[in-house]
Amino acid sequence: MKSIYRLPHFRMRPLVGRAALALGLAATAALPVAGSVAQAQAGNTQAEGAAADASGQLNIPANVQIFGKSDPNVRRATAIVNGEILTGTDIDQRLALIVNANGGKVSAEEQERLRLQVLRNLIDETLQIQEAKSAGVDVDDDEVNQTYERVAQQNFGQNPAALDKYLVSIGSSPASLKRQIRGELSWQRLLRRNVQPFINVSDGEVKEMMERLKAAKGTEEYRIGEIYLSANDQNRSQVMANANQIVEQLKKGGSFVAYARQYSEASTAAVGGDLGWIRLAQLPQDLANVANSMQPGQLAGPIEIPGGYSILYLIDKRQVLTADPRDAVLSLKQISLTFPKGTTEKDAAAKAAVFASTVKTIHGCGEADAAAAKLGASVVTNDQVKARDLPAALQDSMLKLSIGEVTPPFGSIEDGVRVLMLCGRDDPKVSDGPSFEEMQSQMEDDRVNKRAQTYLRDLRRDAVIEYN
């Protein structure tokens, strides 16, 4: 069963916002025209400078003495946002989605930190819904229910009741997910009306970007996920400890997208930390040095950089405007031999050896079915498999095969032993890159994102929020 965090994308490319907390909505733009970690951190540096200026104006003493025992970080996770109540139940149900996305492997201490972040996310979501209503942008119940049913159809076979039951079983609720859907639809519709019409990208800017892309042909691009945590001299050790805890959770199987959404302070947090396709020159040197030696699927960090720490995850890498062999479409036959229940490891190894030697004698895919029948094995055929969709361990060996050859055997006592036989291969064509319209759309989306972040920041600044 898929976790709710990984439910399919139910909208277009995300504009902005952290409300996509439990749906795992990932951006898949072919080329990031902006929004890189360097830009995100430049924004943080500017913010720090502004805070320093503000401190000077406020005349904050260097030797601060706190009167009373009040700790603003210790409170029950409830709030009233412009008169609208967020209850502890609201936080618990949204938190349950995150915990479930990480397979329940979240410590009690981690859950307390997550609760505060969930509260901040729900406050943003509430502000977005309120602003949309005040602007006359309505999302009716029918639209929300249609999206909810679509999610159920994609994950539970056209059965919303099954999704209802699943959400309740993990400690969440249909109402919590529907509220999140309403928040995303409301905010995106508001941005389309109040922000997008005023964004303009000139033809000259698009042409310049496309020329830069062509000039970079053949150079390597990296698709990187990043979690950025800001730090200063006072809290550096605490932030470092938090970053190490996040890395440990990720190594235990935690969702990188989930943690990026919850903890990253870069602008890319809204899309699960995904920086899109970038060249290493776009990264700060400290990060570029680390990323250069990483392989797809590898995690690195925390890495100390000016202003804080970064955790990197290399999603993929490729060469600009060059055909990637992993985009080849393969025609495959999978030959599988299962082991009877109770088979010992020794017996399984012996049977696997016989299986491996036998499949090597098969002369092409035309003999596969008959040979499999003699072995008592089954055959499954698939003519539309992209090489990049195979497990990383199989990709390289599969791309080196000639037609009719098989991979080395793989499997386990529980799953049996199997091989993949290559029956055909359609190699990818060299890409010309995004079209003029696609590039222009990407650049416009990025500018909408930046404007939307300012919009949400203004809503936070003007909000009346009471904490309980």
Automatic annotation (TrEMBL):
Keyword terms, alphabetized: Chaperone, Isomerase, Periplasm, Rotamase, Signal
MF terms in GO: peptidyl-prolyl cis-trans isomerase activity
Pfam families cross-referenced by the UniProt entry: Rotamase, SurA_N
InterPro entries, alphabetized: OMP_Chaperone_SurA (IPR050280), PPIase_dom_sf (IPR046357), PPIase_PpiC (IPR000297), SurA_N (IPR015391), Trigger_fact/SurA_dom_sf (IPR027304)
Domain named PpiC: residues: 219-316
Signal peptide residues on this chain, from the entry's feature table: 1-42
PANTHER family tied to this protein: CHAPERONE SURA (PTHR47637)
Protein name: Parvulin-like PPIase
Organism: Novosphingobium pokkalii
Upper lineage: Bacteria, Pseudomonadati, Pseudomonadota, Alphaproteobacteria, Sphingomonadales
